[in-house]
Amino acid sequence: MQLYRDKEIDIELSLPDKYNKQDKKKALSKFYRDKINPDDDNDHDFVFLEKQLHKFLKRAVLRFISKDYSNVVLLVGAGASVVTNENGNINSNYGKTMQDISWNIFNQLYGTNNLEEYLDEKDAKIFLPKDQQEKFEKVNFDDESTWFSFPLEEYISNLNLYIQDAEMSGKKVRNPSLSQAKKLKRFILLSILDSVDYNFDSTSKMPFKHDKVILKLLNLIHSDSSKLMVATTNYDLAIEKSLEKDNFTIFDGFEFGNNKEFNDDMYE
């Protein structure tokens, strides 16, 4: 994962997956010695190393945001709505990483045999990229070492292409049928919505800090006529709900009113 890189700041840190804390400690320890304190040869614990990384990143970010800009674009990736507790573990009541959403859907379909309601396991495999099909066949849900990063977005794209081709050809398709494929797609989309359906009823108690980030970036724009553009790959509405709490006006392409229809003229 490349955290930040430019001419002044060079931060590149690759952390293993979330199931191996010992390897994470090794990666953090190497980063600490290489980038933060080369003269410190002590064997520090994970908490110390993580705090040092956070301080380092905070100083680095402050260096490049302490300037004026005419335009600012904020790219928010999957996982930006993740909220951690005091122990650093993800609070499952709020944001999910892309990996969490993907694994949850994969487990719902294959780990609990729900897939049989939609189509045969053999037929479902065709929506996986070819290089992932072998991993798929070796998965044992009781053995974490066999788990793999389920390519959910590619899976949905391939499923969409299958449905589109079947509808355009006008011919009946088998294994799976068009109705089976559509049913599977609906199940996946509803599962995604359920994964990111947080409790927004009490906006004053929302744990998200997106609005503070937005306010900080707006202060960097020196032109009154300029706008802040936020590009997000998130499935959830955490950014929109956080900004509504501070009475921001948001142009997201949907018209204002009860019947919210998408209209790209809204961006003008």
How would you describe what is shown here?
By secondary structure, this protein is mainly alpha-helical. It is 43% helix and 5% strand. The chain is built from nine helices and four strands; from the N terminus they run ββααβααααααβα. A two-stranded antiparallel sheet has the order 1-2. The protein has a two-stranded parallel ribbon with strand order 3-4. Strand 1 (4-5) and strand 2 form a beta hairpin. Helix 1 packs across helix 2 and helix 6 runs antiparallel to helix 7. The chain is globular and about 65 Å long. Mean pLDDT is 76; it is low at 1-9.
Rg (CA only):
22 Å
- Low confidence ranges: 1-9
The SSE order reads: EEHHEHHHHHHEH
The outline comes out as: globular
Strand order of the largest sheet: 1-2
| Helix-strand makeup class | mainly alpha
Q: Treating each run of at least 4 consecutive H or I residues as one helix, how many helices?
A: 9
